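Quick one, T. Sequence first:
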Amino acid sequence: MNTPTHMLIGAAVFARPVVPSTLVAAILGGLAPDVPMFALVLFSTRLVGIPQHEVFGDLFYSHSWQAVFAVDHSFFVWGLLLALGHWRRHLILTAFAGAGFLHAATDFITHHDDARRQFWPVSDWVFRSPVSYWDPNYYGGIIGVVELGLVLFATAFLCWRHRKLWQRVVIVILAALIVVPVIVTGGFHGLHGMG
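Structure tokens:
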């Protein structure tokens, strides 16, 4: 799924209104697994000058990049952080790690050709889901509609639970990153490359 969707879903599940910092922690946890990808893409395209089609056509699938993605999407890495947060009763760490784990889990079921080795370091096995959040050959159009529905539901739920203006502004901005391109283009094709 797209990164803002991960952030909203993670916040909807793990943020607690009585502890406002858990909203920020969950949003950052939903973002965290994709930060290395964004950094690699920006470094390659902006600083090195590699064309975007080469980055997403070749480098993205290279062994070195996939090794990074194995760590940042590892169920074991996120599971250990989540267990630590739960064991220590640390709400902020639990919200962050829970959203990161949920990000990895939703990617597990919505990535086909671009799937990650999510059982690192125990195994290099890759589950290639029969569905893809972006590829129409693997139900990407249907998943796009489901994703949009999840974004709208999570946004409404979060705005209902979190009453402060700054919280609602952050939530609506994240939702707009998904909803506005769909409205402007009339489809979901413009969203690929964010997840």
